[in-house]
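Progress narrative, work stream C.
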Amino acid sequence: MDVAPVTTPATDGYRALREHAAWMDLSSRGKIRATGQDRARLLHAMTTNHLERLKPGEGCYAFFLNAQGRILGDVNLLCFEDHFLLDTEPETRRKLFEHLDRYIIADDVTIEDVTDQIATIAVEGPASASVLEKAGAPAPETAYSTAAWGDATIARWNSTGSIGYFVFVPASRKDEFIELLSAAGAIPASPDDARTVRLENGRPRYGDEITERFLVQETGQLHAVHFSKGCYLGQEIVERVRSRAQIHRVLRRLEIDTADPPAAGVKLKSGDADAAEIVSAAFSPALQRTVALAYVRTPFAEPGTELSLGDAHARVIG
């Protein structure tokens, strides 16, 4: 099927995320600080990754699960000398705070929501390290590692699946840091720009492609899980799925030969069989077709598998 002509040109922010560097104000993301002598032990028992082995300046990605193994939220965790900082989606800020607070009983742990005190500025794109260098800032080399920049902290992670960094700054100085990054060559990118690039890169987001509906292995985000760390909330279900190798669907990136992105919930076929369900889709100006994330039934999940969406052809990319 021929792809319909593009009616909306690529924006400057979209091009910067793909080709250079863009900044995004992500200050609405939740920030939770955990202090106290038992903070590592508690977080280790509450998340899917190995928190107790982290050293100051290191971090990781992890899920919080309920007792049924369903995903309550995801976090980027940073280890500092005297605290952990949990960075999470705006939608899960309160939910995860209350979830943690419920399990603090006799532990020497204090949690504080510091979202309004700390602004988050993302710098993402292939030239993001160069932009930080021009701004006089360090660019941590290892994933989830951090570096100090005056009273700011720079963390090596991203929201779009590209090379990127989060800059955590005092909220009162957010505009100042944005001016520094802009002067170094970063340009603003919109949420729509970021979403399109994120889907092009196959990067899922909690609240959109990952929800309580899904199990850990179905998301494909196994870098969030340490399978030999010991017990944690929801671990029994994760281990049962792993040992039995029984998942019936998995999150995959698709490319669809249409300029009209399908809505969430739309089904794709393989012959007469239901093969996949769209969770997010957007038109890609660079690829001149729609990119999507979908939960694909495992018999149809191999890269290169051809699916159909009405008259449009779709391919599983990976």
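Work stream C, second folded protein:
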Amino acid sequence: MTLSLFAGLALTLLPAYSTTITTYNNSASWLAATSAGYQTVNFTGLAPAGGVTSYTSATGVTADGVEFIGYNSSGSSDIQVVDTSAFSWYNWGTGDALLQSLSRPNAGSPLPYVNIVLPANITSLSLDLFTTSPQALSYTITVAGNQYTVPTSSQPTLAFWGITSDTPITSIELTLAGTTYNSSSNELLDNFSFGASDLTAAPEAGTYLLIGSGLIGFVLLRKRLTAEKTGSPQG
């Protein structure tokens, strides 16, 4: 039996690895699980006082290396930053905030959504969420192939949502559940924080254990097969 076959058999002893994501609905718990040095995008200055700025480039709103790209129902890039203090229906007391319209031509049109593209090696993020027309809608948030339903609150209470992961997160996608095509619903977000979870401070002991177990299994398997071939006692 060749060494490559030994290695193949040893690898089958290792369990498949998958991303572990932990969610948080309050900032204190998220902060306790996040390393110092995280950054926060609050969109300040990206809209004129009392007004709105539209961003339709392929990279949407880019701040601190994060791309916030809004896609309308036709798939075109279209997102806004609004001075929420200038409009009573947007004013959750958060200043400038990101706004994505959920308007679409008919009930069969695809839901608009926001895609947030992250810099490398991000394993922790959080954001504040709210909605209009109506208020207190629930978000559908997709991260690493997992979907989460995140309820929001009525004015003026912001909904906090955060996650930590044991592997880097490359992007997240947000849309609103339960909207109708003619409702003029909007999703809004602010205070987007991102950085490293405390899990990245050192490699996990569990990871080392899995690797070590695989190598030990490989050695034991080779020893057993060698003993069987030579007819020597196993031990």
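Residues 44 and 96 are 5 Å apart (CA to CA). No further action is required on this item.
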